[in-house]
């Protein structure tokens, strides 16, 4: 029978594709890790790893074994967590991941609310891009992730929380955009400013501007929405901004006009993601409700109308 040690060693090797780095992560010598992998192969009667001068490759059955090993290790982590925290996610330590285009605008309101309602929770935050957070969640390194849907992963479940509409941000002095609404077909590739590759918001913005030829985009990618807003304010181009960001700025950005898209306006779906094996379903629902309640929103009435004109 395979041991959890062998599964941990194999999972590390599958992720690093390097015996030395995998051994370092597992705090063992390289020969010790290699021996455990060989014993695992002998027990299964198949080759999991191709060893060569160019590095380590997994065989097709090795890829399947790696996926199953990750699932087993994540389930074991969830079992230990359930017992240690007496069946509650909202007691003890909760590991929460959030993508960069959400974290600065949601967390300042969400974290105090969570601390007030669940004082026994210690929240360990991780801010990173979607792909990394999804991998960490599937591997059992995170408990919950707040990001933009959709996310498709066989080990994960998702829950849509709310829609976050997009606005077109143009320089206040721009003569190219007149009126109160924006049209995606009026956006030129040479003017469009985007986040750098790897951010899901970049892909979402390009999906809105479908007629834009990505090959004509500037060789520039910002790392934050704040940078994009400042570039627009200084006349460097136009960009799409989520309403969540605009609300965090008080509904207005100096020297920038914010234009609405006609209905149905483009938007992103903010959602919560967790592992299917996570047993704290009631706690997940409570966190989802609180995230939804803490959604940043521009004020109603005249403030809201002026912010979007």
UniProtKB/TrEMBL annotation:
Residues 2-59 form the HTH lysR-type domain. It comes from the Bacteria. InterPro entries: LysR_HTH_N (IPR000847), LysR_subst-bd (IPR005119), WH-like_DNA-bd_sf (IPR036388), WH_DNA-bd_sf (IPR036390). Keywords: Activator, DNA-binding, Transcription, Transcription regulation. Belongs to the LysR transcriptional regulatory family. This is LysR substrate-binding domain-containing protein. It comes from Xanthobacter aminoxidans.
């Amino acid at each position: 029978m395979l041991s959890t040690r062998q599964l941990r060693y194999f999972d590390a090797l599958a992720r690093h594709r390097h015996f030395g780095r995998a051994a370092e992560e597992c705090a063992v010598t390289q020969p010790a890790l290699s021996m455990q992998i060989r014993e695992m192969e002998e027990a299964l009667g198949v080759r999991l790893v191709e060893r060569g001068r160019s590095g380590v490759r997994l065989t097709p059955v090795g890829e399947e074994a790696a996926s199953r090993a990750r699932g087993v290790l994540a389930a074991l982590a969830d079992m230990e967590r359930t017992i240690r925290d007496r069946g509650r996610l909202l007691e003890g330590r909760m590991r929460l991941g959030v993508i960069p285009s959400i974290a600065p605008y949601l967390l300042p309101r969400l974290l105090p609310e969570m601390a007030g309602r669940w004082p026994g929770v210690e929240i360990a935050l991780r801010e990173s891009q979607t792909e990394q957070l999804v991998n960490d969640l599937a591997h059992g390194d995170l408990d919950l992730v707040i990001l933009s849907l959709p996310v498709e992963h066989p080990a994960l479940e998702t829950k849509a929380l709310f829609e976050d509409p997009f606005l077109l941000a143009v320089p206040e002095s721009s003569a190219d955009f007149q009126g109160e609404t924006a049209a995606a077909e009026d956006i030129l590739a040479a003017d469009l400013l985007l986040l750098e590759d790897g951010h899901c918001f970049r892909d979402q913005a390009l999906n809105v501007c479908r007629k834009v030829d990505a090959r004509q985009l500037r060789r520039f990618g910002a790392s934050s929405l704040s940078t994009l807003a400042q570039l627009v304010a200084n006349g460097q181009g136009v960009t799409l901004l989520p309403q969540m960001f605009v609300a965090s700025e008080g509904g207005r950005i100096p020297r920038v006009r914010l234009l609405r898209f006609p209905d149905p306006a483009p938007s992103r779906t903010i959602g919560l993601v967790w592992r299917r094996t996570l047993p704290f379903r009631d706690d997940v629902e409570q966190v989802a409700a609180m995230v939804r309640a803490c959604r940043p929103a521009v004020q109603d009435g005249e403030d809201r109308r002026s912010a979007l004109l």
